[in-house]
Structure formats: structure tokens, C-alpha cells
């Protein structure tokens, strides 16, 4: 696990977000079209502000978000992507 985390941190950048009225309003707007919880919405806003489109997560909710690439080990997400012809392997 430590080796995997070191590999991720060597190629990824940490993204900060300020939770203010602008961010909250943007999250609420996104919530109308994407069925995500509050933390996911804030993470997506941080990604949008940083210009990031790739996320590593086991949270299957992210696969409902258009315009991002999800890297996951979530078996259900991988199976669904394979069945829909959307699975990319590296």
C-alpha cells in the first residue's frame, strides 16, 4: 500500500479547495444533474478549479460524471464498464 501511495504522490498533485459561496453554488448546480453526495461534489469542484480530469477512487458515483477519467479497482465499476464497452486498460 505504501509503495502504491508513493507512486501516486510522485505523479499527482494535491488540490486544495475553499468552501465558500461560489463553490457551494457551483456544487448545488452540479447536484441537479449528477447524483453525488456533498463530499463528491466538493471534490469535483476542486478538480474543476485545478483543471484536473483524472481521479483515482473506489467510489462508483464518479462514473456518472461526464468529462472525467476514473481509475479504480472497484469490481462493480469495472464489470459495468466492460459490459458497456467503456473499459480501458493500461
**What is the assembly state of the chains in this entry?**
single chain
Radius of gyration (Å): 14 Å
**Largest sheet: number of strands, sense, barrel closure:** 2 strands, parallel
Order of helices and strands: HHHEEH
Put simply, the count of helices is: 4
Mean pLDDT: 89
Q: How far from one another are the termini?
A: 19 Å
C-alpha geometry: globular
Order of neighbouring strands in the sheet with most strands:
1-2
Explain what you see.
A two-stranded parallel sheet has the order 1-2. It has 4 helices and 2 strands; from the N terminus they run H-H-H-E-E-H. The longest helix has 13 residues, at 38-50. It is globular and about 40 Å long. Helix content is 48%, strand content 7%. The protein has helices at 2-11, 21-31, 38-50, 75-83, and strands spanning 54-56, 69-71. The chain is mainly alpha-helical and 90 residues long. The model has no long low-confidence stretch (mean pLDDT 89).
Please tag this protein with its features.
single chain, 90 residues, mainly alpha, 7% strand
Summarize the structure.
The protein has 90 residues and is mainly alpha-helical. 48% of the residues lie in helices and 7% in strands.
Layout of SSEs?
Blueprint: H1 2-11, H2 21-31, H3 38-50, E1 54-56, E2 69-71, H4 75-83
Parallel strand pairs: 1-2
Amino acid at each position: 500500500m505504501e509503495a502504491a501511495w508513493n507512486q501516486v504522490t510522485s505523479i499527482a498533485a494535491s488540490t486544495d479547495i475553499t468552501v465558500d459561496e461560489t463553490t457551494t453554488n457551483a456544487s448545488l448546480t452540479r447536484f441537479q444533474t449528477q447524483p453525488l453526495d456533498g463530499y463528491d461534489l466538493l471534490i469535483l469542484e476542486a478538480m474543476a478549479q485545478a483543471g484536473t480530469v483524472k481521479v483515482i477512487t473506489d467510489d462508483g458515483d464518479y462514473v456518472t460524471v461526464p468529462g472525467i477519467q476514473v481509475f479504480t479497482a472497484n469490481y462493480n465499476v469495472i464489470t459495468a464498464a466492460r459490459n458497456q464497452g467503456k473499459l480501458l486498460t493500461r
